[in-house]
Amino acid sequence: MPFPSSTPVNSPLLSLLPRHLHRESDAFITARRTSKFDVISAWTALLTATSPKEILTNPRLLSARAEINEEVERQTHTAPKFSKDGKIAVFRIHSAAQVHPVIATRWAGHLKSSKLEIILVANSGYLPGMVNFSCRIARCARKRDPPVDIISSLKAVADLDTTDLVQRLGESFARGHKEASGGIIPEKEFEELMALMKVGEKADPAEEGEKKTKVKTVEKSPQKNTLSNYFGKKG
Length: 235
Prior knowledge:
The chain contains 11 helices and 8 strands. The protein has a 6-stranded mixed sheet, sandwiched between helices. Strands 3-8 form a two-stranded antiparallel ribbon. The longest helix is centred in the first third of the chain and has 18 residues, at about 60-75. The model is unreliable at about 1-10 and about 220-225 (pLDDT under 50). It is about 40% helix and about 15% strand.
């Protein structure tokens, strides 16, 4: 169930808001991302609000935002595995909340390597029997030449298959646009896709020395982070 378009209803109010209040209000409307998928509370708050304060103090939206923040923090510490060529970092989570796009965006700004191009966060807990995944271009790859195209990259992987995987992936595979894509595919097909990417396989010896990945602190903290100590934390 998609979230209703808010443009006709809310654009007069939003056009009068300072940018920071606009961002805050939008964050609260993401109550629809919770495991309860509470679209009606978010939509009702948007329809009835006469000022941003009413949205920012709505009890149900406050509770939903706290739930999402807690779940994002818990799932963010999942360790990634990389495709054999080092171009795709895969984070696998299991959450009833729609946090995979948020985590993909977060890690896109913090994970670095000379080869990394795409962050892929796969959520096997959002829909039974399905994997919802979100992809973002890693910030370190945004100025690559030629430019990274997520949709083309995902389809190129699927095309490596010699059977009927492309057809089985269907129209919900590699949706969106070249910089922010994703999809919803059955678990079996997702595992086949991961096998084609050779996720978790070591790079060839000649390439191993080039694959050096650094992580900056995701949350503001005076403590320095490395892959080993960051993902060793328990959320």
